[in-house]
Amino acid sequence: MIALLARRRRHAPARRLSLWAHLSLNRQRRALAQLDPRLLRDVGLTEDAARAEAARRFWDAPRHWFR
Q1: What is the pTM of this model?
Q2: Bigger pLDDT: 29 or 3?
């Protein structure tokens, strides 16, 4: 039992994003959905990739946001 607790403490606790971060992510995804194909090419995204990213839920944040 003690070994199990010791192992748990070594791992970093799960971090949560603030409400403002979630709202910002939602706003960014809505804006991404509005871009035309020419602008998507400028930022290096295909229409399918942009559509898939825009369809993600606001709580589905990229992993690097949690560092």
Answers
A1: 0.65
A2: 29
Put residue 44 in one of left, alpha, beta given phi > 0 → left and psi -120 to 50 → alpha: left
Amino acid at 1: M
Distance separating alpha carbons of residues 31 and 43, to the nearest angstrom: 13
Give the DSSP H or E segment for 39.
Answer: helix 37-42
CA distance 35 to 66: 27
Residues 65/21, Cβ–Cβ less than 8 Å = yes
For the chain, give the number of residues. Answer: 67
- pLDDT score of 44 more than 60: yes
Buried b (16+ CB within 10 A) or exposed e, 21-48: ebeebeeebeebeebeeeebeeeebeee
Model pLDDT, residue 34: 95
